[in-house]
Each structure stands twice: as structure tokens, then as C-alpha cells.
Design goal:
Length: 416
């Protein structure tokens, strides 16, 4: 049996795949976990003093991805996971989707959840969506997921699950007014509802509880499981249960102290999810991916040392994510892989691990499944971090050495 796990920058992302090795035709279960705003130096397997025993053990048992790149911000990275396309090919390269904005991941795109569903998977999402909600057509259960529990946006209060924002005063956009609302949802294909019963429940606990329920209710006779679990943690606001805060009383900087507690709380929650898989007898046939969605925000307690930059920058500290894969289907484990990957690669990689193939000519992602399974050289030699003329933030990377800033999108290249 095989299981794999990976971590992605900016947000912690974990993907879990489960597959039975004893039956060659079996497809792995897939657990994809993404952390939010997790910095490079915020996990023990990168040398951090933050206590992450669950993630450390999984990373050391699997394959640590040393050059796994993501986008500098949340919505763009999530669009990569779901579409396999760079954000400048989907219109999501401009910052993130704010509460008042009426767009999302283009509805013409077949998501990885839809593709896996076509391959016989039960598909469930628990956590932070942030790919559009202006119309229900943009929400998870309309994009390939059988069920969804979580936030449509980001930056909600971890206990009340409310999100503040603003809306225009009129159709001409003359001024704005503040709004505040509950952003915790439970959806199935035909049911959409706000969750009113979790006021006071820490979101990391609520998400792990729901993920465990999905696992425990999964009908193994109907096919494998794809569980997409993008945590809210460790995005601000900085909030953590007292027992985790007590672990870091020695840290003088308040933001770093609370941030560290939030990371440890998430680590425990991930352990609860993997334990549920073990108890159901699914773990040995699970491929797990863990990643962050972008680099950590230093002003909110994150640490990307020794990388330069932070969240919202195209430097390494904003785009090189903590990640790993874990699973018995990996033919070599217990090492660090130095080949280049990008967030867009997860789509074709997961489909390939599930026994499918991506023939979309618009796909930017590359199939890394044979690479990860057998420790082969990466076919990826470069990528564009972003092309955003409105924000004048565009950059490319070629190989593992050279990185250039396209300052005005003309033939002027500046080393980063």
C-alpha cells in the first residue's frame, strides 16, 4: 500500500493519496492538505523551533520537496491547484478575491476535482475555498466536490467565523460601506447552508472534525477518496487555544508566539486526520501531499529564513513553499528532492497517480508522478511567477539559479 504527503508555501497544503499496492488496478486515496501563510522556517523539518512532530514524521518518512513553488498569494495558488494553469492564464493574477468582488475561477475550466470524479473518486473539500462565491456556480459543490464545509473567503475570525469587508454604495462605485457576516458553510450538491452551531469552535478543530467525519463515512466500495483540505491556519487574525499558547510562553514577540501556537494546533489536527485514515484501514493506500499556498507574512509572525522576501513578493520567501509527499506507492522515500515543481503541476500529477491522463492543450502543469514515484530528474526547467501589468509585478525563473524581474514587461531584465 502507498501514501504520500506534500507542503506548499504561504498556506499549508496537504494532499493525501491512498492506493493499494497489492492490487495494481487500485487507485490511491488522495489527501491534499494546504496550509495558509506558512513560512519556510515554520516547520520542524526545515529546522524551525516550532513544534510540528506530525508533519516532521510524515516528511521524513516521505519525500521532502526542496524546490516546490507556489504563487505569492492565496487565491492565485489555489487556482493553480484546481486548474493546473498559471493565474495569468485564468485572470486570477491580481492579488486575492475580496468579499466585494464578483468573479472567481473561470467556469469554463474543468477542475481537478471534476477530473478525479470522472475517474471514480468521491470528492470532498474541507477548509478555505477563496476561488469565488458571487454566484453559487463558483462554489465547491458546483466545481466537482460532493460536499463542502468551510469558508468561501479568508481572514475570518477563528472562533466566530465572521468576515468583515466592504461593499460599494452604488452601482457606480461611489464610496463604500463596511459589512460583516458569517462565512462558514456546509454544502452538498443540492443544499447550501450557513453553519450556526460552531460559534466558539476554533476553525482548525472544526475542519479536522469534518475531515474525520468524511473519512469515517466514506463508502470504500464506491471508489477511492479525494479529500482536499486547505486549512485557514495559519493566516491572520492571530488566534490560538490557550494550551498551545502555553507551549510558547518563552517567545517574547507576541505575533511569533501566537503564530507558533497556531502552527502546532494545525499539526495536531493533521495528526487527527491521518489517524482517522489509519483507523479506517485507508492509510496504507493513501497518497498524501502537504504544501503551503504562499510564503509567510513576517509582520504576522511568520519566518522564511534563510530565504529572501515574504508573502506577496516574488522572492523565494514568498514563493518557495514548504512541501512534501508521503505514501507507500513511492518507490524511494526518506530523502529531499531538489527538482523543481510548481503548484500547477499538482493537477496532472494527481490525475496521473489516479490512473488518468490530462490532454488539455491549455494545461500549464506537468505530470510529476513518475518523477516523485521514482526519484527522476524534473522535466520542469522554469516558470513565470506572475505577469501582472496592473501591479507591475512580473517575474520568471529559469532553472534553479536564475530569477529575473520583468520590470516593465519589455526587454529589461533585472536579477532578483
Amino acid at each position: 500500500m502507498v501514501s504520500v504527503g506534500i507542503t506548499i508555501a504561504g498556506s499549508l497544503l496537504v494532499v493525501l493519496f491512498t492506493a493499494g499496492v497489492s492490487h495494481g488496478a487500485d487507485k490511491p486515496n488522495i489527501l491534499f492538505i494546504a496550509a495558509d501563510d506558512l513560512g519556510w522556517n515554520d516547520v520542524g523539518f526545515h529546522g524551525s523551533a516550532i513544534k510540528t512532530p506530525v508533519l516532521d514524521k510524515l516528511a521524513q518518512e516521505g519525500v521532502i520537496l526542496n524546490r516546490s513553488y507556489v504563487q505569492p498569494l492565496c487565491s492565485p495558488s489555489r487556482s493553480c491547484f484546481m486548474s493546473g494553469r498559471f493565474p495569468f492564464h485564468t485572470g486570477l493574477q491580481h492579488i486575492v478575491i475580496m468579499p466585494e468582488l464578483g468573479y472567481g475561477l473561470n467556469l469554463s475550466i474543468t477542475t481537478v476535482a471534476q477530473r478525479l470524479k470522472d475517474l471514480g473518486y468521491a470528492t470532498h473539500a474541507v477548509g478555505k475555498w477563496h476561488l469565488g462565491f458571487c454566484n453559487k456556480a463558483y462554489t465547491p459543490t458546483e466545481r466537482g466536490f460532493d460536499s463542502y464545509f468551510g469558508y468561501y473567503l479568508g481572514a475570518e475570525d477563528y472562533y466566530t467565523h465572521r468576515r468583515a469587508g466592504s461593499v460599494p454604495n452604488d452601482s457606480l462605485g461611489r464610496g463604500s460601506r463596511p459589512v460583516d457576516g458569517l462565512d462558514l458553510h456546509r454544502n452538498s450538491k443540492d443544499t447550501y447552508s450557513n453553519v450556526l452551531t460552531d460559534n466558539g469552535t476554533y476553525s482548525t478543530y472544526a475542519f479536522s472534525r469534518e475531515a474525520e467525519a468524511v473519512i469515517n463515512s466514506h463508502d470504500t466500495s464506491s471508489g477511492p477518496l479525494y479529500l482536499y483540505m486547505p486549512f485557514q491556519a495559519v493566516h491572520q487574525p492571530l488566534q490560538a487555544p490557550q494550551r498551545f499558547l502555553d507551549m510558547y510562553e518563552h517567545i517574547e514577540n507576541k505575533n511569533r508566539r501566537v503564530f507558533s501556537a497556531m502552527v502546532s494546533a494545525m499539526d495536531e489536527a493533521i495528526g487527527n486526520v491521518t489517524n482517522a485514515l489509519m483507523e479506517r484501514g485507508l492509510w496504507e493506500n493513501t497518497l498524501m501531499v502537504f504544501t503551503t499556498d504562499n510564503g509567510g507574512p513576517v509582520g504576522f509572525g511568520a519566518n522564511n529564513w534563510p530565504l529572501r522576501g515574504q508573502k506577496a513578493t516574488v522572492w523565494e520567501g514568498g514563493t518557495r513553499g514548504s512541501a512534501f509527499v508521503h505514501g507507500t506507492m513511492l518507490n524511494k522515500t526518506g530523502y529531499t528532492y531538489d527538482g523543481m515543481m510548481h503548484a500547477v503541476d499538482w493537477y496532472p500529477t494527481l490525475v496521473s497517480a489516479a490512473g488518468g491522463k490530462v490532454d488539455d492543450p491549455l494545461m500549464d502543469g506537468m505530470d510529476m508522478w513518475p518523477v516523485l514515484q521514482n526519484n527522476l530528474p524534473s522535466p520542469r526547467q522554469g516558470f513565470a511567477y506572475n505577469i501582472d501589468t496592473s501591479g507591475n509585478v512580473s517575474a520568471i525563473r529559469y532553472s534553479v539559479v536564475y530569477c529575473f524581474m520583468l520590470k516593465y514587461l519589455i526587454n529589461v531584465f533585472q536579477p532578483m
